[in-house]
Amino acid sequence: MKKVAAYTLTAALLVSLSALSPSSYATTASQITKQIEEKNREKAASEQRAKEAAAEAARVAKEQQQVTDEKAQLEAERDKLMAEIRELSKEKEKTEAKVDEAEKQLKLTEQELEEAIAQVEKQDELMQKRTRLMYSNGVVSYLEVLLSATSFSDFLDRFDSLQIILQSDREMLDSFKDAQQEVEDKKLQVETQLAELEAMYEDLKREEQVLINKEAEKEELITKLGKKYEELHELHEELSEITEEEERNLVKIASELSKLYAEKKRLANPYSGGKLGMPIDSKYRVTSNFGMRIHPITGKKKAHNGTDFGAPSGTPIYAAEAGIVIVAKYTSGYGNTVIIDHGNGLWTLYAHIKNNGILVKEGEEVKRGDKIALVGSTGNSTGPHLHFEVRKNEVPVNPSNYLK
Length: 404
Description:
The protein is of the alpha+beta class. The chain has a domain at 272-401: Distorted Sandwich (Glucose Permease (Domain IIA)), CATH 2.70.70.10. It has helices spanning 11-15, 29-137, 139-147, 152-268; strands at residues 286-288, 291-294, 301-304, 307-310, 316-318, 323-331, 335-341, 346-358, 365-366, 371-375, 385-392, 395-397. Strands 1, 4, 5, 6, 7, 8, 9, 10, 11 and 12 form a ten-stranded antiparallel beta sheet that branches. Strands 2-3 form a two-stranded antiparallel sheet. The radius of gyration is 60 Å and the shape is rod-shaped.
């Protein structure tokens, strides 16, 4: 069975089936052709939109991947920079400790130098006193010391003592000067080392700052790429929604086209007369004919617009002729109802179908003899039976004139 143009009952149908009319029913082949052309244009436009959206979504997905890769690379570079910064910080701390130690050593050396200078000055002052004494008293003083000796051996002893004193003063002064020079050399060495360490520390600080700036730049780029990724993600979601919407639209258009083609085919081959097939197995008897009768529920005389066939619940109901299902739902009074349009203004109606007993859908194309429903007792019914109607140009006519 093929699906074709869907039909619906009007509000009047909910009250009475005497004014049945489909809500969107093309009556001529030319109208159907125009609708088909319009739907094909819609289909082409929808396909183009879907194609463009899919292409843009693919481009965005590719750009997303590029952003992801670039962000990952930047994060790796940032992590490497951070590791280098940590190593530099450690090296800087070590150098700073060495600078502190060198400064302490310099202070100690300066103290040692001050002490050495003081010793030299003290020794120099002592020698100067002795020299002044010698010059103020003249050589006589030394001679007096020597000449006052009691013996020649005493003279020699005194002479040696004077030589020793002078030599000792000279040696001590030279020693103190050597010590001073050593301390000065040491101070110069410590100052040189301190200067080198301070220069190294400043170099490390500058290098660290360069790395910190680079890391900050990487972090900023990572943040920007993160925002760009989110924007691309949102755009991709929107494009995906457009693609999905167009796909749903294409399915809808395809369904509508299928219905229109089927309707066009039906209009090209409408019902042209002849007997209809039996809507139920011929073994089931007629329990109420078309025409005026006493209504079994209200007890009032009223026109009966169809023919009733008594049959057990669940008995198959068949399409009396090929056509399009224009109603397949519950309606007031008739209960579960199916109406088939056979073309040329001829409809057949099948009522009081059991719950869940409708086997076709609105818009579906059926063939003569297809099982379309099951007998029931829904709506205004006193028991299981099939109420069958034939309508010509929406007006009920006697079904017996059309049935075999």
